[in-house]
Write a structure and sequence with these properties.
It is a single chain. By secondary structure, the protein is an all-alpha fold. The protein has one domain: Orthogonal Bundle (UraD-like). Helix content is 66%, strand content 0%. The protein has ten helices and no strands. The termini are close together. It binds 1-(2,5-dioxo-2,5-dihydro-1H-imidazol-4-yl)urea.
Length: 164
């Protein structure tokens, strides 16, 4: 969608246009409320500033829309197709890598009580596995911040693709 069109939509429809970026309704509403944006840099800067306010509740809310790394994303909805695109590297993963990722995901969920989240776009499967293993050593606070940073990166990439 063109930025000019996004600027002009009624608020409810503008929110629908960006809701696949992240499952945090108040972030969607806040971004829509500060329209119009002069250019996409201004849009992304505001989106980034709003996303830097996220804490634990936002992380929990958003994770519902993010399938595990390496898991087949079957859905026909927009989030599922975005995830498939972001995780293309895992489609070339061999059995050993998929198995290691699955074990890592289980260890992460047992340790932190939520799904391992990472910006997949631009990373190979090996890089994501290495990050998973590194982050397993984090304390709770450090890991929450890393996960929130990754969520913000995924959200901004999705927004960049949504509005030009
Ligand atoms: C994802 C996803 O679906 N896209 C992405 O960049 N990361 N999932 C995840 N668990 O990190």
């Amino acid at each position: 969608m063109e930025l000019a069109a996004f600027n002009q939509l009624p608020a409810d429809r503008a929110q629908v246009a960006i809701r696949h970026c992240v499952a945090i309704p108040h972030w969607q509403q806040s971004l829509v409320a500060v329209r119009p944006f002069a250019n996409t840099d201004a849009l992304l800067a505001t989106a980034d500033a709003l996303a830097r306010q996220w804490q634990q509740p936002e992380l929990e809310s958003a994770l519902s829309a993010h399938p595990r790394i390496g898991e087949r994303v079957n859905g026909a909805d927009k989030e599922a197709s975005l995830s498939r695109g972001e995780q293309t590297a895992m489609q070339q993963a061999d059995h050993a890598l998929l198995q290691a990722m699955q074990q890592g995901n289980q260890a992460y969920e047992a340790r932190f009580g939520r799904v391992f989240l990472i910006r997949a776009k631009g990373r190979s499967g090996e890089q994501m596995l290495a990050e998973l293993q590194r982050r397993l050593q984090n304390d709770d606070q450090t890991e929450q911040q890393e996960a929130l940073d990754q969520l913000r990166e995924i959200t901004l990439l999705r927004l960049e693709e949504t509005i030009q």
